[in-house]
Amino acid sequence: MPGEMTTNRLEAFSDGVIAIIVTIMVLELRPPAQPTVPALLRVAPSLLSYLLSFLVVAIMWVNHHHMIHSVRRVTARLLWMNLNLLFWMSLIPFVTDYMGKNYRQPLPVAMYGLNLTFCAAAFYLLRTELVCQYQDDAERSTYHASIQRKNLFSGLLYLASVPLAYVSVSLSYMIFFSVAAAYFLPEKKLAASGERM
Amino acid sequence: MPGEMTTNRLEAFSDGVIAIIVTIMVLELRPPAQPTVPALLRVAPSLLSYLLSFLVVAIMWVNHHHMIHSVRRVTARLLWMNLNLLFWMSLIPFVTDYMGKNYRQPLPVAMYGLNLTFCAAAFYLLRTELVCQYQDDAERSTYHASIQRKNLFSGLLYLASVPLAYVSVSLSYMIFFSVAAAYFLPEKKLAASGERM
Amino acid sequence: MPGEMTTNRLEAFSDGVIAIIVTIMVLELRPPAQPTVPALLRVAPSLLSYLLSFLVVAIMWVNHHHMIHSVRRVTARLLWMNLNLLFWMSLIPFVTDYMGKNYRQPLPVAMYGLNLTFCAAAFYLLRTELVCQYQDDAERSTYHASIQRKNLFSGLLYLASVPLAYVSVSLSYMIFFSVAAAYFLPEKKLAASGERM
Amino acid sequence: MPGEMTTNRLEAFSDGVIAIIVTIMVLELRPPAQPTVPALLRVAPSLLSYLLSFLVVAIMWVNHHHMIHSVRRVTARLLWMNLNLLFWMSLIPFVTDYMGKNYRQPLPVAMYGLNLTFCAAAFYLLRTELVCQYQDDAERSTYHASIQRKNLFSGLLYLASVPLAYVSVSLSYMIFFSVAAAYFLPEKKLAASGERM
To answer: Which of D177, D126, D185, D114 is nearest to D151 (CA)?
Structure first.
């Protein structure tokens, strides 16, 4: 009997959670015990790990914004698909901290890759809901389907980073940074052509 | 003399607090000291405890949203009943952490159940305020009364989980997950029938 | 040249900070090391300290909301007076943690009282700004002046709690809880008379 | 194909992140282990470091608000320039904690200065985007250019604080507090002349 949740509120709540995720990660950066350069350098991997996650979460935020913006109707399924995404995103500070403190070990790097795989899968599921809402709109369907292919491709790359961490963690890091760059750069190209964002 | 607080602001503040509660819990997940699978597995109970609380808080958020949405007038009583609810919800990260680190011990599991009992009681009190505002609307009164029965039932189950933890913690866990599932699933059924959310 | 800040944005930012203050305090409640009742009881003072601060911050939030709501013009002075208030409020988690862990020691209790004294003083200064904006409105001026007297009185009580902690910490605790009750109860009376909130 | 991000949403997200940054810093203030005055005094440098950062972030928030308010179009470049600024701002709790715990050591003080230099540079880049949007509006261009000069000047002062910390940390502290004062005071003057804020 109560009304539907509006897109606005879904967006505001998701934004709140994402803003907190992105910011609390910095709490896990513990300042070095000694005020010396070598001690500071030992924190560098944690800082780089934070930088990567800041970039990843920022990209997810931008994409999430665009996705929610084209929602027509906040159904229960969509709401839970969104909460599913937020759950996996909320684990990013945990794997970031773990990887930052053990950046040469395959297990933490694989866990980071696995977490991002689940995030990509959650994005995929959420967008599937959205594609359903646009079955009658050929142009938008095509648009969402093309983004979904890119989403699927990066999800598969993240999945590949899990076993590859046991070959060499450098391969997994290359995947993490390449996917981030791939999402970061086209955004600019598209904007230049005045099409989105 | 100053005007009443609007429903919007009450909702925005509550949402802010709930978004923070749900996200800061992840800060309590400390990455394992060693980059090994056994060390990672020792964190698994904390991760499952976090998953359960994420689900519980997400369900409370959805229900709280619907409840506040049907508020007609933000009275002082309603405001304090809402703050009472937020107080008990704000303790969830504390009991989640306690239970995750001692998942086989009856006391932490009983404390978790007790906290959820107080949350359910706070929801009940808040909805009682709401039912009062709809005394003249038979249809809505019936609707709120039926939700309140479900609320009361889950509150009693949570209360039962407190002594049951001393029989077997598994019984309490079954209650926690069953109540979550019971709130999670009907939501979908109702949405399918197009009635709410 | 850019426009004034709106009351809405000042309120949204303040609410965000207050929602975070009230919620992060719970992060300072560390679950007991042992899953035993005596270990849990040792956390009880921290929990009570948290309860007190939750109540104090909730009351400040309600009062702050009413105050900002009657702002006519967001001047630079008002903005900085508000940031001054938020600064002192942001220290509450710090003194709460300190007092909770040393609840029988005069120094932490005195520090808690001193922090609340500064909060009360910041409220007083902020309201003075507001009274200035209503110099031409006798009714509202009288209203704000009457609240300000109550504000001044509780500020003086908080100030008294600082030296009194060295006589007996119980006296200071009595002041903290009495002031909270004094703000909590009349709110209900006023609401009943339909005048505010 | 989806619409542009609105200024409102960019502002709300940025405000959320800034509100969290300013508030979580207090979590790094650990209450002293002993309830004694000497133990409390050992926390004083951390408290002062927090006060400085609260002031710095508050000033950035006010300036950021004015800047975003005059945005005409949320382009991808602007969005990423804003995320760049938020990234550097998000490191402030980290350097604040580091400096507060080692306030007499040149390295942490230099790191603090370096972080503020990057924040100032990020502000400069963000405003450059904005100036581009006002190429056709001479009056506003002049206005933004004059603020940008002040921004550049404080950025250079922050940069100078990095090597100066190795001469004497007091020099760096003087720079930090002077720049804060320089931003804090004129704001009042301008407001008095009724021109802004």
So the answer is: D126
